[in-house]
Task: structure prediction
Amino acid sequence: MNYIRTDNGILIKYIDNFEPYQVFESGQCFRWECKDDGFVGVVKNKVIKVKKLNGDILIDNVTEEDMDDIIYYFDLERDYNEIKRRLQFDGYMKEAMEYGYGLRILNQEPFECLISYIVSSNNRIPQIKRIIENLSRMYGKPIEYNGDTYYTFPSPDVLADAEVCEIQESRCGFRAEYICDAAKRVAWGDLDLSVLKKMDYFAAKSELMKVKGIGEKVADCILLYSLQKYEAFPVDVWVNRVMTEIYIHQKISFKKIGEYARERFKELAGFAQLYLFYYYRNRKGGGI
Result:
């Protein structure tokens, strides 16, 4: 990977298949904010800013020592051209990939992803973002960047010590009980997310679904966006619509849709889901 140091960051040269707006507005993450001419977020307890400069990507507030984390988080070593080549047998998918040409699947921190998608259940993205920001302000640690204060995501131990009634102050409602349960399971070692990453897709999904508030779709999101289980195919109302309209042409359960997608797209099902969701949601729904 070709990159050069700047005064306060790293400029990654000649990188394709990376459009920050598409990545951060694709519905897979909730803590990136469009600010000035880029996107600001917290990765590995550090505030960074990502900006597109022609064909290059400028990442501010990082050093060369952070590059391994940056490469992993943004999935920079994966050949997305090869993924597109393998999926282009599908005409509609080809359209979706052309539309979402700069999409990537982020490798998010597993505990933050776990809690974020518990919060996402029956919720809209603006509200999800507010709740996660509230939790971070309440239980995370402050970080200063360019005169603004940001917050780390709280650790499992900190959330595990909180009372349900306290967590409800984040405006998460009934999900407070689920957040407490999940945090305690992780903090006490009953749910080891690093072990889940080593399991196969179905075994890891089964373990996640033992946690209160985690069903099929939430489990698939956690597996896809933080545990690198690319067979996962999260199905929400938008994915249900595109799969029914374009592929299946009949009403079947969300679970059956996921099975169909894994059969059709194999180990690239998760990538296919992101392209289909982004294309159909923006074309039919007017944006995320």
About this structure: The first strand starts at residue 3 and ends at 5. Residues 59 and 166 are 36 Å apart (CA to CA).
